[in-house]
Amino acid sequence: MSGESLHDDISQQEASLLHFRALTTSDEEARALFAEGYTTWNRYGEYVNLAWDAERAKQQHRGFPWKYDTATFKVRLQPKETLITLADSIPIIRALAPPAKPPKAPRAIRRNREGFEDVVQIISVAVDDDGVRLQTSPELRPGDIINWGEELDLLVSGQEQLRLGEVIVDAAGHILPVIDLTHQEGQICLLLDGLAAPGDLFHHGRALTHQRINPEDHLLNRNEPLYDEEGNEFLLGLGATITSDVEPKGEILRTSNEIFTFGFTVEVDEGSERENWIQILLDREDEESAVDPREALFADLDKEIRIPGGDPVKIVKRDEHGKRLQIKGRLPPGYRIRPTPRTADYLKQLRALHNLAYRPLPEQAALHRLGLKQNQAWPSMPELPTPDWKVLTSDYDPATRKGILGTGRQRDFVQRALATPDFTILEGPPGSGKTTAIVELIRQLLEREPATRILVCGNTADQDTGGGLAL
After folding, report:
1. What is the pLDDT of residues 134-189, one digit of tens each?
2. Phi, then psi, of 361 in degrees rounded to 5
3. Fewest C-beta atoms under 10 Å: which of 187, 387, 430, 456?
């Protein structure tokens, strides 16, 4: 009979009895072992199922918001205004307004108000309805008289200057009001309300000869700070960016006189070698809760925060009192920190219980018999003399905070483990002293028999445990 037809011809119970027959000496004993063991392991399975359901429920938790507590923030500015400079008084020769035509001579003789004459080089010529504007070297000044080609005694005038509230139009047709105007070093500095499109700027249809300046560079040269919506001060650094240990609040940074405004984006220095502290926050509906829900979060957090579709973020240190975590890695903006469900662990336990109930292996006979009624009572253990403690040497003194916390219970575990004929189970949350107690137990076993071979294993690569067991 093939293996496939055998599987079809026998029931699951009959297949299980084949496993139990390998653990016993008769069919009757196999059926009794199966019936009694099934009841025990099924009851344990119900407990594990409850725990598994509770873990699955954690995946539905909305999670906790967070913020960086200690980190370096790089703030990149997004200007909301356009800054330009114009010559303080742009020279214009009105006598050459159309239909007159400007001479083509490359030089002119200039006589200033004091009667001094010199030669100026013509660099560029611009003609509009008001006249001719010349860019020369040296520069012309209002009040100068020039002889240019065949045109004599031409008066150089100053161009009418822009005023606050006047509008400039960019190449895309956007209207940009003048919201600030200052004079400095022979130039006029204009701040326009809005971002100008690339290209020319026009005033009353006439193109302006101007130079654009980055507002952030302008403030950097003046060492002028910016402020967020809560009044925190930020100074520009190299590259016209802000580096700060404080994250700006709100959506706008502005100067103290509120003339220059910037949107901004924030990047956190999250290099692979940097470790930042984050503060776990509460949602508003949780702030009035009698029990801080973050307590359960800290109890359930693993050694890393798992990001769906991303790299896990390592938890370096915990500050349960301050509800802070020191992390190494990148948390996505807006990500909410959730408890770490341990469904995989409980699923393994359920599978192991199922195998014990239905398909125990011969080498699991001793473990399976633990589920029988006659073996469910704890055996009596002999009294042993108090060991010469190697690690658990000092009791904890709350006044001085010296010694090992929980030393008495740790010693009790070690004495029970030394006296038991089979095994002792120690359970406790992280940081409760399990590793220290295990180290003491190993030291005592080696003290009794130095040649004893001891295997220490675990399901996590815990550096702290590894250090504690470095005997």
Report:
1. 888 888 888 899 999 999 999 988 766 678 888 999 999 999 999 998 877 667 88
2. -90, 160
3. 456
Rounded Cα distance between 338 and 297, Å, is 7
Q: Is the pLDDT of residue 470 over 60?
A: no
Question: Mean pLDDT: which of 92-96, 172-176, 219-223, 264-268 is highest?
Answer: 172-176
- Phi-psi region at 364: left, alpha or beta (left = phi > 0; alpha = psi -120 to 50): alpha
- The whole-angstrom separation of Cα 463 and Cα 467 is 6
Cβ contact 213:192 at 8 Å: no
pLDDT band at 106 (very low <50, low <70, confident <90, very high): very high
pTM over 0.70: no
Rounded to whole angstroms, the Cα distance separating 433 from 435 reads 6
Q: What is the pLDDT of residues 14-54, one digit of tens each?
A: 677 777 777 777 888 888 778 877 778 888 888 888 888 87
The encoded tokens of residue 338 equal: 């959730």
Pairing assessment for the beta strands 175-184 and 261-268 based on DSSP bridges: unpaired
Q: Which of 318, 140, 128 is nearest to 208 (CA)?
A: 128
Residue whose structure tokens are 């030669």: 119
Q: What is the mean pLDDT of the chain?
A: 81
Evaluate if residue 349 carries a pLDDT over 90.
Answer: no
Of 342, 410, 363, 371, nearest to 42 by C-alpha is 371
Amino acid letter, 337? I
* Strand order across the 73-79 sheet: 233-234, 226-227, 253-254, 261-268, 73-79, 242-244
Asked if 392 and 410 count as a contact pair (C-beta separation under 8 A), the reply is yes
Asked if residue 329 lies in contact with residue 313, where contact means CB atoms within 8 angstroms, the answer is yes
**What span, in angstroms and rounded, lies between the C-alpha atoms of 200 and 183?**
22
Edge to edge, the sheet with strand 82-87 lists: 206-207, 201-203, 167-170, 175-184, 187-192, 82-87, 211-213
